[in-house]
Design goal:
By secondary structure, the protein is of the alpha/beta class. It has a single domain, classed as Maf protein (Alpha-Beta Complex), CATH 3.90.950.20. The protein contains six helices and five strands, in the order αβαβαααβββα. The longest helix is centred in the N-terminal third of the chain and has 17 residues.
Amino acid sequence: MDNELFELAQQLGQLLKSKEKKIATAESCTGGWISQMITEVPGSSEWFDRGFVTYSNAAKVQMLGVNPETLDSSGAVSAQTVTEMVNGALAHSDADCAIAVTGIAGPSGGSAEKPVGIVFIAWAYKNQDTKVVQTKLTGNRHQIRRQTVKIALEGVELG
């Protein structure tokens, strides 16, 4: 097990539990890795509601309510899509906050416009603005995915 990611998930759980909040995830390029790290933490059922692994565009539309027009105009790897993913995770769960990720982990699938390593991460909280970051990560597929999980877990902020 990845001790650093486990510790981050533990810290997230302590924060959520102390605030009596629950979280949901919507994952594309990480394929459920964020949810896996969360559920490695004993007692996570108290603060983890559910995870959506929406690797295909159809899954993003069907499970999270992402607008097909957003996918057509902006693509699956975009700020617009990750925003709709994170808001869809909130809307289709009993969670108070959500994390969503979409990106190109490689080694193929990149383009000049959207190179391998481009990742969008979003955090949404009920009755608050959604936060979205775009990052360009480096390394192999595993390293890009791991860095995405780390950033996603670190980025949760409950005021």
